[in-house]
User: What shape does this take?
Amino acid sequence: MPAPLIPSSDAARVAALQRLEILDTPPEAPFDELAKVAACVCETPTGLVTLVDAHRQWFKARYGFSVPETDRSISFCTYTIAERSLLEVQDAEQDPRFSDNPLVTGDPHIRFYAGAAIVTPDGHALGSLAVIDYRPRTLTDGQRATLLALANQVVAQIELRRHLAQVERRNSVALERRDHRIAALLDSALDAIVFIDHQGRIAEVNPAAERTFRILRGAAIGQDMAELLIPPRMREDHRRGLAAHLSTGKSHVLGRRIETTAQRTDGSEFPIELTITRLGTEEPAMFAGTLRDMTEQREIDSQLRQSIERFELAVRATQDVIWDWDLRTETRWWSPALAISYGHEPAKLSGRVDSWVELVHPDDRVGVEDSVRCVIERRGVYWSAEYRFRRSDGSFAQVFDRGYITYAMDGQPLRMIGALADMTERRRLEEQLLRSQKLEAVGQLSSGLAHDFNNLLSIIECNAFVLGETADAEAAVCVKDILYASERAAALTRQLLLLGRMQRLRENTVDLNQIVMDMMRILEPTLTARITLTASVDASVRPIRADASMLEQVVLNLVINARDAMERGGTIKLSTSQTTVDTEAVRHGLVCAPGGYACLSVTDSGTGIEPDALPQIFEPFFTTKELGRGTGLGLSTVYHIVKQHRGWIEVSSTVGSGSTFMIALPAVVDAKPRETSRFTATDQPTGTETLLVVEDEPLLRDRIARLLRRYGYTVFECASGPAALEAWRMNGSRIDLVLSDLMMPGGLDGRELVQQLRRDRADLCVIYMSGFSPEHAGQGEVLVDGVNFLEKPYQPIRLLQLIRQQLDHRSPPGR
Assistant: This one.
């Protein structure tokens, strides 16, 4: 499971959370209600108000969830904090961030999660208001909007709670300084406050208690509180609880908000909300009970439940067009969105349900009517159907219709409220997605293969390097060939990583003519006999700064595009030239910098491009080919590679005569000399220090260790992060430098390992290794190739020189 991202500002966020003093506090009704409302609105069994500190996520409110807290490393909420808005995980088993999360693979088997960040007014994301389901699903737009709105109410409640806590603290300080304020506080309190001693006798009551229980203070003081204020059936439980607390110090009611029943002096009973607090720790014990008459609140709660029920009916229908069908009168009401989306005036269609049926495509009508009837006959609650719906202009939209059915007590259907969503555009995009998913799958597979292949190439280069030191002349030639082949293979893996979008731009000074001629040798055998491929290069074309692999991709895509335009055969011509862009041209709209440019043109004799399609050819997924013959990504890839190289592209085409694509890339004027290391290319520095090598590939780890020992170093080898921690625990004081792979099994990657080691030694020298470039190595410590990072495969001499460079530049002892 990918580790949740922890921003550098997390300490400030955690400090802000601690200042609120809300962690590990008892449940509070406002938070509980918000969690319940969120679950009801989103139609999930679980709603949570979650707060995340440095190590855990703790649930302030839990609706339909038994776990009180979890470790932060497996929390969904940490990702919500990073989003700072709304995080929706439609299927956790399919999401690489959560697929191996213990909460997904084990109890409670979470499949769906949606969380809205709880962000304080001063910008700290404390946690989330989240809903959870145990099946894959998605939220509607209305549910998402409501979840975000409810999250704002959680923030408001936290702010109110903080404000009340501040008021309480100020009152507490004032009470300690001036005892006479106690009486004023009791007199002004709206809630009833009753003080009792260790024998259960009333020691004091405030005016609110007199009004609530209809008793005078003088008559109450000294009375047995249980006999006076508690219903008879509950008195024995109260006495046993008080005795148990006095003997053991334990209580299940102290400091908690409980709902129970009290009795007035006239014998009438009423619901109360009660909090009991022990005053100090001195003996004999004294207790204060704060009681709130909940009679009015219960009525409000009843009204609130009715409002929530109506609200649930509304949010179930948050689609494009809302409708309300009275099943008793067979009349149907439409929202005004019907006119906007489909051109029908709601007033003309409101009335008999037949007006809706007539708009359903004739081929779909019987199936839709049967599906509604079948759901009602089974007394089902939910109905949905996908069908074609006629617009006012006569065209048909592909729609998804869903409804929620309510029934009378006798089981008769009363009402069906729902929504109509236009799925036409979505279905079109799904078809495009199916085409692009094939390319995505190939890219992911290529990235994985390239990463593993880089490890193998590293092993080859280490062995060849060692053999080359002792080889005779004939063997040295073989070693040289091995290293050359390894470099060629590394270039191929970079192309695979480019396909998987896991390779950064590798700019070098390259010869455009040479790239064209190399691609000629590769492309000629792949074309049919009816297509002739020719090349004409201008020897005066200056070098360019570019990624050769990406330019090869450009040539390949342009030639394939030309080939597909010539089903009956023809000629494809590659040619190079150079041009100069002056300031005047830039001023007149050419989007590039002034200067010299090297140009590549690809001309075909194919069918050409229709004028209407020409402005769209570089858009992703746009293609004029029939289904199954193109993804619409080839020219889009060319366009973005050229833009990434600060160039531009021009297209000219005549229908029936062919097309020419010309790309222009900035030419090198005066190349700056590269910064050089203090080592020469052949320097093989040695050392006597102790190194820790952490690499999960056994053969590569062994070859690296052998190489380092050959050059004088003492080496500890580890196959995982946990094993490296154990080696550090035993030998940490001896280790001078850590050489670690970035991605490793065992639940601890290279960055996380180094973070733990640097808790013991902040100035520890570290070199990371990876088959991916540093830009794709995740968040954390900045990685610079050739400084603290080596991209596999690397030449062993570079490793030896970088180790020496790191060790020689470390701070002297005592600094």
